[in-house]
From TrEMBL, chains A, B:
Family recorded in the similarity comment: Belongs to the FAD-binding oxidoreductase/transferase type 4 family.
Native organism taxonomy: Bacteria, Fusobacteriati, Fusobacteriota, Fusobacteriia, Fusobacteriales
Entry annotated with the keyword Flavoprotein: yes
Domain FAD-binding PCMH-type: 41-219
Protein source organism: Propionigenium maris DSM 9537
Cofactor(s) named in the record: FAD
Protein name according to UniProt: Glycolate oxidase
Superkingdom of this protein's organism: Bacteria
Gene name tied to this protein: glcD
Length: 465, 465
């Protein structure tokens, strides 16, 4: 079905790129490129190219299209669903060398970047100039190309929305190798079907993002966090819809449990400000006047105390901020380090069902005698639930994992939730997407893939295939 | 190509709807249904159905699909690009009777509505309960179904974005008559291609919206407007990118010229607070504390004075608010009433090119000796430019209009703008969309239309066809 790459293909690609040393052949390719952060699925590309320009990508893809060679784009490889694993070998395009910030446009409040710029670099660059790129996924070493490809969400989605809300324009290499522009440096757009919004979240299956123009905001002048301990997870989570109803919109509402905090303390070798309670909400408030921020957090602190919170710690010094948020940022790695293997469920449910869903994961934990720590974005209904292998033999692990996943995704569906809030479908969650969506929906997605990519060369076997 | 409707089709449709009196046949159909607010293009449907339920729509569309009858959905008919004109006769579905507000969900901050609810009803309903639906298109009698179909923008886009940003989920009848759900009552979603975002702005060509779940915000507690007179339009418009650079984000930044204000005063028989200057910016600021709102408008007022503004009037009484914003709301109708025929250009350009674009329309006004009043959303680069016929004979009018449009859209393209900011493409602007977009882009749109609607029965001849 796909042509396997030959020495001739390698020679051709070396002849068209600016720097032939950026092209790697089979055994020269590092193991890293055979997988992302998802365990259990890996495969090597035949050829790896560390691409440096849009034109290079365009020429390589055109060649691959003519010869029916599979092509997969890869950023930092921090994905959690196997989206960048080259299932059909072929050519992998590593975009991390395309890491230039092209333009900050202060009159239009936009930032134009190459796809390989890391999220942490964007944050640093714009905040030094008092601008703000609101999307805030936990993995700061992810590339912006990867973030756009999964429509990454992150912690500030409660107030500011997700990556989709901050992409004004994309330059994309289509599967036939042509370069297309979708969207523009404009605030409004009603000019035909929104192809830009199709590319966002399409996990590299419809085109390769080679440039992105992002919407910025002015940096809010004040930001304060609140850490609120509760007696148990139910109390913490059940406070969330009440906070939303209070008409105050925090920037972030994260929930965390003691066991995850302890893992993180151990992993980082740092102490969390408080770990004596069973469950916590961590909230942030931002704004342009201190009065407004103080007003907002006071309302929420009082409300939480009324609802049974044990206290409300203000996190306003740089030291405390660092201690709390670095712990929050390390949760995934800490859980990862606490077990031999894990898999993750990234469902999103309507906010008022989060408590029920977490309770259900606790029931499954008991039923299957398996550790299921979780944390996540309580304010936007997006949960990160980890099933930990903890030394189980392969057969038991596979069986338990499948049964637990089946039950969780079924329950999320019953609650009006979706399969993925922000990590995408990739390879690992396709089955659950197929289970959830009706045939029309899946067939339209397959049809769209066919329209963009009639020879199915771009990241085949992912999302809806 | 399409089957003309027969008595048999009429009888069948009458037999499946709840109320046969809601079905109209040819000569019984009011002239209103043959056009929208765009002049120069009209055609009648064979059958008009005032639909009342999703199931009714589903059954009618299924029948039309089987028999290859064209189907067009219509809301209030306030469109400006002929999108709801039934070019191929067939069946028209009037959704204005599906006007129920289904659910306000305070825990998830969502409002679920039928497609025929008018924008003014949504505003009234949610604001009474201290919630806020930010999109604010000028035409308040438009239906939400129409707003979603054109991705309507409106005045508050500077701060709050456009309709797309406030649609969480859609129920849609597909061209085969099946009912599908896109999106969900969730804040984040990375579960396959965003079909919801394809439907938004697709002007009734991919599916018929039968239910929408909208995102709400808490209603800001304070809102104040500023009316800022300038000596000329250049001074007014050139202040806009400077305002944006000041790191204050007004809710709205509208520009208006004396001639349009005078038309509006005459049309409404009401006096505008000031009409002695050539050009004005009208700004709104909102927030949850008076201090913040006052802080913001003071910065902008001072900045504008520094940039040469003649004054800065605070519009904070209910009376003044009403006088200013009712005038602003009447601009389109006032220009409409001032001439025998007009056509409109709804381009959007990057904010820093608005001044240049307005200057260019003034040049065209001179060059073609034709009146070209304009007003619009200076803060988001979306201009509404009206070419007024003022009694020209048909041939001269057609010629001048075409030449002026050709030049304007070409210039907008050179400035990195798009054909439509918020009114859509419909029938009238297709040529300019084709001119602007590359072949790949247009072919993908055509392909997507084919995937959704292989028999091309839904609103044929629009957007990309």
């Amino acid at each position: 079905m796909y042509k396997a790459c030959t020495q001739g293909d390698l020679d051709y690609i070396k002849s068209i790129v600016a720097e032939p040393l950026n092209v790697y052949w089979k055994e020269e390719i590092s193991e890293d490129y055979s997988h992302d952060e998802l365990g259990g699925i890996s495969n090597y590309p035949d050829i790896l190219v560390k691409v440096t320009t849009t034109e290079e990508i365009s020429q390589i893809v055109k060649y691959a299209y003519e010869h029916t060679i599979a092509v997969v784009a890869r950023g930092s490889g921090t994905g959690l669903v196997g989206a960048s694993v080259p299932l059909h070998n072929g050519i992998m395009l590593d975009t991390t060398s395309m890491n230039k910030i092209i333009e900050l446009d202060e009159e239009n409040l936009t930032l134009t970047v190459e796809p390989g710029v890391m999220l942490m670099e964007i944050g640093k660059y714009v905040e030094e100039k008092n601008f703000f790129y609101p999307p805030d996924p936990g993995e700061k070493s992810a590339t912006i190309g990867g973030n756009i490809s999964t429509n990454a969400g992150g912690m500030r989605a409660v107030k500011y929305g997700v990556t989709r809300d901050y992409v004004r324009a994309l330059e994309v290499v289509l599967p036939n190798g042509d370069i297309a522009e979708f969207g523009g440096k404009v605030v409004k757009n009603s000019s035909g079907y929104s192809l830009k919004d199709l590319i966002i979240g399409s996990e590299g299956t419809l085109g390769i993002i080679t440039k992105a123009t992002l919407k910025l905001l002015p940096l809010p002048k004040f930001s304060i966090s609140l850490l609120i301990p509760f007696e148990d997870i139910d109390g913490a989570i059940e406070a969330v819809p009440q906070i939303i109803k209070s008409r105050v919109i925090p920037t972030a509402i994260e929930f965390m449990q003691r066991e995850v905090i302890l893992s993180s303390e151990e992993f980082l070798g740092k102490t969390f400000p408080d770990s004596s309670s069973e469950a916590y909400l961590l909230l942030t408030f931002d704004g342009n006047t201190r009065e407004q921020v103080e007003h907002d957090y006071a309302i929420v602190a009082d409300l939480c105390i009324d609802l049974g919170a044990l206290d409300a710690y203000i996190v306003d010094t740089e030291e405390r901020m660092e201690s709390v948020w670095s712990a929050r940022g390390a949760f995934l790695e800490a859980i990862h380090a606490s077990t031999d293997e894990m898999d993750e469920c990234d469902v999103v449910v309507p906010r008022h069902r989060i408590a029920d869903f977490i309770k259900y994961t606790k029931e499954l934990q008991e039923e299957y005698s398996i550790r299921i720590p979780s944390f996540g974005h309580a304010g936007d209904g997006n949960l990160h639930i980890y099933i930990c292998r903890d030394g189980l033999d392969q057969e038991t692990w596979d069986k338990k994992l499948k049964e637990i996943f089946d039950k969780m995704y079924k329950r999320a569906d019953e609650y009006g939730g979706m399969v993925s809030g922000e990590h995408g479908i990739g390879y690992a969650k396709k089955e659950y997407l197929f289970d959830q969506l009706c045939d029309n929906n899946i067939n339209i997605m397959k049809g769209i893939k066919q329209v963009f990519d009639p020879k199915n060369i771009l990241n085949p076997g992912k999302v809806c295939q």
